[in-house]
Amino acid sequence: MEKIDGLLGDIKGMSRFFSERRAEKRIRLVWPEVAGQLADQLAIGYFREGVLYLSSINPIWKAEVEFISDHLLKKLGKLVGSAIVKKIQVVDELIEVKRVEKGPSNAGLSLEQLVKYENEKRRRDGMSLCLRCEAVYSHESECLFCRVK
After folding, report:
1. Best CA proximity match to 26, nearest among 70, 92, 78
2. Domain tally for the chain?
């Protein structure tokens, strides 16, 4: 009897695993629509037990997502079902490699080359270096980090 209970538990666990993977796939499909311009800054890390974990190269997004999580949850609820995603959390990890590999020319680049590529992209988007720290690109004269100081 214990073997049957163990097998049934394993089957239920696998069923939950597959339903979470299907939900994660649907979330990934609608994420650009839900997040808009933030989709470039916040990548989906993974989805587990109703929590959508996002990753970002910029730690400031952790606080920002807390302010807009209700809005994001409502949009996700409309597109994938209101009972699926219950919470959004930003983890302190780098964005997945998939984000960097958008262009075929990025494959196999070193970290220094990727940073150079991202900086060029920001310059093309109209950003410039912060006038105070000269380290962070921003649309304004001072970056968010310098304004907070």
Report:
1. 78
2. 2
